[in-house]
Amino acid sequence: MVAADRIYLREAPAKLLPAPVASTGVVGWVRANLFSSPGNIALTVICAALIVWIVPPLLRFFFFDAVWSGADREACLPSAQNPEPGACWAFIRAWSSYFTYGFYPLGERWRVDLFFFLLAFGIAWLAWLGAPRRDIGAIYFFIVLPILSYVLLSGVPIIGLPDVPTSLWGGILVTIVVATVGIVASLPLGILLALGRRSEMPAVRLFSVTFIEFVRGVPLITVLFMASVMLPLFVPDRLAPDKLVRALIGVALFASAYMAEVVRGGLLSIPRGQYEAAQALALPYWRMMALVILPQALRVTLPNIVNTFIGLFKDTTLVFIVGIFDFLRTIEAARGDPHWATPITSVTGYAFAAVFYFVCCYGMSRYSRNVEARLARAHRR
Amino acid sequence: MTNPSSGTDGEKTGWAVEISALNKWYGDFHVLRDINLTVARGERIVICGPSGGGKSTMLRCINRLEDWQRGRVVVDGKELTDDPKQILAVRRDVGMVFQQFNLFPHLTVLENCTLAPIWVRHMPKKDAEELAMRYLRRVRIPEQAQKYPVRLSGGQQQRVAIARALCMSPNIMLFDEPTSALDPEMVKEVLDTMVELAGDGITMLVVTHEMGFARQVADRIIFMAEGQIVEINEPKAFFEHPQHERTRLFLQQILH
Question: Which end of chain A is more exposed for a tag (fewer CB within 10 A), N or C?
Answer without folding.
Answer: N
